[in-house]
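Sanity check. The docking grid for N-(iminomethyl)-L-glutamic acid depends on where the pocket ends up, so I'm generating a full predicted complex first rather than guessing from homology. Inputs follow.
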Amino acid sequence: MNTTQTEQWQTLWINIHLATMTDASNSYGEIEHGALAVSNGKIVWLGKEQDLPQFDKHQVEVINGKGLWMTPGLIDCHTHLVYGGNRANEFEMRLQGKSYQEIANAGGGIVSTVKATRAASEQELLASALPRLTALHQQGVTTVEIKSGYGLDTTTEIKMLKVAGLLAKKLPVTIKRTFLGAHALPIEYKNQPDAYIDLVCEEMMPTIAKQQLADTVDVFCEGIGFDIKQTERVFSAAKKHGLSIKVHAEQLSDLGGTELAAKYKALSSDHVEFLSNDGVKAMADANMTAVLLPGAFYFLRETQLPPIDALREQGVAIAIATDANPGSSPICSLQLMLNMACTLFRLTPSEAIAGVTCHGAKALGLSETKGQLKVGFDADLACWNIEQPAELCYQFGVNPLSTLFKAGIKVI
Ligand code: NIG
Ligand code: FE
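Predicted complex below; grid placement will be based on this.
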């Protein structure tokens, strides 16, 4: 690189170790004693500090990284951050012996959050979601996916997605919005799931697509959610509207939702504890990402582990997310998920970190711009007060985030 190009550098980090996450095959893609330059919000150079080209010290802001580690800003690729109320009462019921499914079947569960979300104003939803997003952000998160799905009527689904959009104006976080109208059956459609799916496909989805309130569609394909036929109707409508597809599948049973999603070239299948070998193969063939949600596994005290070895053998990218929601994962810490991905799912620390960087990006269709330290990628950068990357997974409770940059600008 010659000096003419370096003149355009705006910020340069020196004396920093880089976990580039560009080679997710069990490595952090480390560049120790590195340097990284940013211009117009993008990474424009990175490498060993000793290989730095000549640059004009008066033109460039030089930041001494003091030997810290830098990773891509973290990505939480599966959340339900916007909702009304909370479900601490159901937590108590579960401790008295009721199961998640029993509570759902008795009119609690998702449907009870729907009541509270319908009753809340846009401002109230924004005010309750903001501390959750702040908690994620303060732990190094710069991109978050947020799903609708606690409205289950057109007005409230739109309200949720609008609030998710407003959150991006409150904090320097990229928000990706997903329409999850097919999350549960609202009470007014009791025993009429097909009529509700008509509403999702024929009224909600066209409006949301037209107003560009979401670019992805998700379905809860499960005994307490929607069956395969209903799921397929939603996928087929999503395809018609040019929206990407995701699925909550194989969380509590194996209905084949993942294989169906693979046929529709979905971005990801999420949960997947009960995924079969054929399901894993289908994911590999369709280049889908498996989003593992250790928070829900932990909080529901599940025992069926996702098929990690099969996913590894088939080369399926594994992402890790909080699934932050009031019912199955009231957890707003991606750092805790890194720890649980290792302790509960036996992922290696580099696999877990790939899960919240490059593979988190892949699960959101952002693998060309986010989740890696690479020339041309967004300069969403997290600097950590650690001596080795594995510390991000190893210790929990002391926040090692030192500084955070969004598009090259210091935000923490
Ligand atoms: O991802 N599985 C469906 N949706 C959420 C649970 C939502 C809730 O219980 O409120 C999940 O686990
Ligand atoms: Fe979820």
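Relevant for the grid: The first helix runs from residue 3 to 6.
Also worth noting: Residues 78, 80, 248, 323, 325 surround fe (iii) ion (ligand 2) (CB under 6 Å).
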